[in-house]
Fold each of these.
Amino acid sequence: MAEHRIAIIGTGLIGTSIGLGLAAREGRNYELVGADRNRDNARTAKKLGALDREVGSLEEAAKGAGLIIIATPVMAARRILQDIGPYLEPGVVITDTCSTKGEVMRWAAEYLPESAHFIGGHPMAGKETSGPSAATASLFSGATWAVTPSPRAAERAVQVVLGLIETLGAVPLYIDPFEHDQYAAAISHVPLIASVALFRMVRDSQGWEDAALLAGPGFRDVTRLASGDPTMARDIMLTNREAVLHWIGRLEEELATIRRALEAGPEPIYDLFHSTQLDRDTFIQNPPQRRRPEGIEPPSARDAIGRMFVGGLYDRLKEASERPVRAPQDDAELRRKLGVEDDRL
Amino acid sequence: MAEHRIAIIGTGLIGTSIGLGLAAREGRNYELVGADRNRDNARTAKKLGALDREVGSLEEAAKGAGLIIIATPVMAARRILQDIGPYLEPGVVITDTCSTKGEVMRWAAEYLPESAHFIGGHPMAGKETSGPSAATASLFSGATWAVTPSPRAAERAVQVVLGLIETLGAVPLYIDPFEHDQYAAAISHVPLIASVALFRMVRDSQGWEDAALLAGPGFRDVTRLASGDPTMARDIMLTNREAVLHWIGRLEEELATIRRALEAGPEPIYDLFHSTQLDRDTFIQNPPQRRRPEGIEPPSARDAIGRMFVGGLYDRLKEASERPVRAPQDDAELRRKLGVEDDRL
């Protein structure tokens, strides 16, 4: 039975939602085991049907597991990667759901034994409320799920993670970890900071009690990210600080541009709002196409996880060298592409 | 039949949603007439059932109407208030739905004849998409609807507007126009600007096509307001510029605070995220209580509009002096309360 076990470490919103999605798979041939430093979380996850069994230690979770999913804030993932080595089965596939990928990939390379296959992951999904009680099996439905395999992860191991993603109804997106962190800073981490800043701006004013009476759906939407888990937010900032600082600077520049348009009169400010509206409507109506990982045929959602344990996952998987992690010298080109050429990065 | 007529001028998202809500009222005893400078909008509104009749001029809309609802961007409302005078029935009740109230109240006082009763209004509701096709009868359900009566509006006229608001399922909030514009700048207009700035920041980067692939629900939520009608946005900024500039400055200060916390290390940034999360959760779970307009017993939602035309709305309504517009000397106190003491305001 050992080879038919999936371990979820960290059973908050994300880990429990993954458990619910995996538990719902028809005719599943694997056991779902979960652990959380906050044992109440894991017990709630089990009660909700996201786990078959909850355990109280990393050792119990990892031993006998063929796939391990680390669904914690980034700094907790570091501790787990440092500590988990002795308990791993050879050939185990490990993935994570952390919001930043550069540091996580470095830690995995540093701490994990060679016999483990690490594939980084980041589902672009979330909710206003955190914790296992907020979990739903459909959380990832249609969401992009960034995938960053380590250079020594075998092709078969990557397929296991792609299968996991498709089982949950998400769409995998192959991406370099450095590129991921840059883009995530722009599209996720700095929007989170803006959301926090907007809420604090009104909350800290003396007129808050009266102003709050006027709050409509717009204010609730733009400040939603401010209700996210503060540990997750802190860890994002600790592991992606330079990129975040760069993009805060870009946001400040945009605010200055709007301020100037506002002072210049009706036409410049209309043009600015109008062109932004057109661009955003285009983005919403025709979102950019997701690319399949090159050279990889993802398993079908129906068979992915089922097939995972068939044919000997525990055979030592062949080393895959087709997908090297981007070499440091490539960073200069990427920085130019991202427009991050100044000394803040 | 003339006294049983409600005119909606401007049949975009808001005007058409009002029409749908009023049309749905059981046993209604009024005719719904609508006009829009873009006649296709009014035709769509009629087709959707929001109007009984669409007309092609301000004159046709106003003549014979007992209640006129101006649901246009602010600068268009100015032109309408300037032009509508000759067509008004004596005793007519006029209200609007514009996003700023100070200028609108000044224009109403300047342009409307004494026999008209003007009550400013601003429903705190909206949607990502604009235009009549996006309208729904439930748009205002549970929403706050700011109400700013002019000093010469009669109590009966205020009741008509409160009745309109309750018929649409919204909750009226009595507020001074200057105070409204300050609060709206903080809770609505600057969040709109931040939303636009966040979208432009990513859209204008060279990595946009790739970054957009990572966009999740968080990015869509924080940038939603950037898809709003650019004319409405421009008019907000033209009529509330000083307050908006003040609050942009406050937002920039908050970004600087977060930047400093980020540079100071794990604990300050955690504390900042944590306290903001607690404050926002409190706001969402226990939103501030709405106050009833003092001294006014709003009509019940069931009877409000029906009663409106009973008992002679066209009798010259008595002048009401209980609710004077805030005198200019009160502004100093309000500015202190809002923390807007610097020279930007």
Amino acid sequence: MDLGRINEFALEMIFDAGKYIRASFSQELIIETKSDFKDIVTNIDREIEQFFVNKIKMRDPSHKILGEEGMGDNIVTLDGPVWIIDPIDGTMNFVKQHRHFLISIGFYVDGEGKLGYLYDVMRNEIIYAIRGEGAFIDHRRIRKLMPLTIEEAVIGINASWVIPNDKINHEKMIQLIKKVRGTRSYGSAAMEISLVVTGKLDAYLSMRLAPWDVGGGMVIAEEVGAVTSNLKGKPFNLLTHDTFLIANPSIHKILLDQFIELK
Amino acid sequence: MDLGRINEFALEMIFDAGKYIRASFSQELIIETKSDFKDIVTNIDREIEQFFVNKIKMRDPSHKILGEEGMGDNIVTLDGPVWIIDPIDGTMNFVKQHRHFLISIGFYVDGEGKLGYLYDVMRNEIIYAIRGEGAFIDHRRIRKLMPLTIEEAVIGINASWVIPNDKINHEKMIQLIKKVRGTRSYGSAAMEISLVVTGKLDAYLSMRLAPWDVGGGMVIAEEVGAVTSNLKGKPFNLLTHDTFLIANPSIHKILLDQFIELK
């Protein structure tokens, strides 16, 4: 399998989708709610996923697709080549802010991440990685993350996990917030992951993410030395929803051991 | 006083500063801590403030300047023409992310906001307002904020105010977080204000801000119908540090009455 050629194909497909999304702001958006009123989808999410599915299937029908909007295949194993796709990560930001949303794509073969993409559509900023060959931002190589202390860290965390909740001991989250230099929250897992892999944040954690939220970012993380896991310290399960942590390697274990206690 | 000409002067000065800041990333940054390790300043903050002070004093020495880094005047009243300047709001973001920081400038005469500027340096996006003439983003007019419910709101709030603290009843903040559609935190008051005045966030609150954090944004808020106050519902005190709330007019009172209880 020629990863270089698949990479070129993926980059072109992603840039084309970005152009379409940017042009879409001049049209009327159709917004629907999904599981609850905080979970929304637009016609553009669906159109972009369908565009990716068509492109990938036309190129090689044997490639399987796991997409947020369900236009791909019914995936029960990661055997063979599988694309994991979020056409718009941060749909609320897309609708309300017209910024701060990303296309996230991962390409896996037999469960191993080979290619990863995080594309900030409005910044026109592409972060991508080819397994074993490194990660790049706008085609410049991203250097490995530099070590730092937990006191120096700026972490991405949503306020929902800092208040009493049924997933995690929030008292330890309070200790974490007092310990670190600062916290941020952007409303897009892919955006927060893109900031961690470029050293702009030092960690990001969430109690519930889907494969398409992290599939692209996990391949990039590997190439820059960022550590990913679920909140038990095990590999994130790409076949279902799971908890998630990505961190600078010098603080990943400290976060897990001292501040994260699942209920 | 010809506000149109002062506006042209200010815009040119701000764009020049932006060019200088963008070019500064190729040089070594000198970082110092101020009051504590979370409060930092760089040589660029100081150089940019000095640049603004020089420009303003050369144009009209009678104009007073209240600046974050103290290069301006010792301001004890807002009588006469006063510039309120933050050369880089979001210095931690500036240092660590090379993005998500803004230049914030307000021009006041006898305490009344006449001109306001929020310049996202890396996006090269300027938001400004001329009192009575409206607010503009990249020279396109910003429309008045549309009403919405508290359940539909996305608000900017730092996690520090959601955990037990000595400023505010955090239990009510927990209720607020459960009530709204989402929360965000960007690490720059000027950035959060810029998102509120353009309808990308619906409110932002902080327990402690300085005049230069809000002086520019308050003039813009007035022109788009966003309501600003301190957390007691009184006008923000531009001569000292104060609590701060900016919100869509349809939720400002609800936030104050139902969710904000100062200690």
